[in-house]
Design a protein that fits this description.
By secondary structure, the chain is mainly alpha-helical. It contains six helices and no strands. Helix content is 77%, strand content 0%.
Length: 189
Amino acid sequence: MGHGGNVIQELTTDHREVEEIFGRIEALPPGSQERKNLCDQATIELVRHSVAEEAYLYPAVRRHLTGGDALADKELEDHAKAEQIMKDLEGCQADDPRFDSLMAQLMSEIRSHVTDEEQNLFPQLEAACPPDALMDLGDKVRRAKKMAPTRPHPSAPDTPPANKLLAPGAGLVDRMRDALTGRGKENRG
């Protein structure tokens, strides 16, 4: 899928990519190792996406939208729930009895979050922000995703400036671990 454009286009593309991975997971039989491989890929994409939203989207929501603090806080709560589920999944193999239940929880949480963002948050942001500001945010989000961690870190800060300072270091360590283990590479293509 093509990345680019303003922040809303970029994040919506991420949403579609994760949903495609979820569909592939749902099509596989329980206990399949491929489900775990796809879960790892979804986690990588979701963590990068979340880190970028927390660094740039939610501060813009706080700045530009009436009631933006409450909206951003709710989105951060959603991220915290999803991140804890991803952390729990990280310790499960596909044949673990908890895997399917945790995967179902994660999919439900993410699908609800995506619907809320796309139906509520994004239209409000598009109405409140000039097009050049949305394009600038899109560029910042793309750069942040390149440096972001690839594994869940539930205890890491999720608001600026601490998240912007710590994410690149955690991202580097995560990408090194992924390269050594091959995590997230099985399903690229």
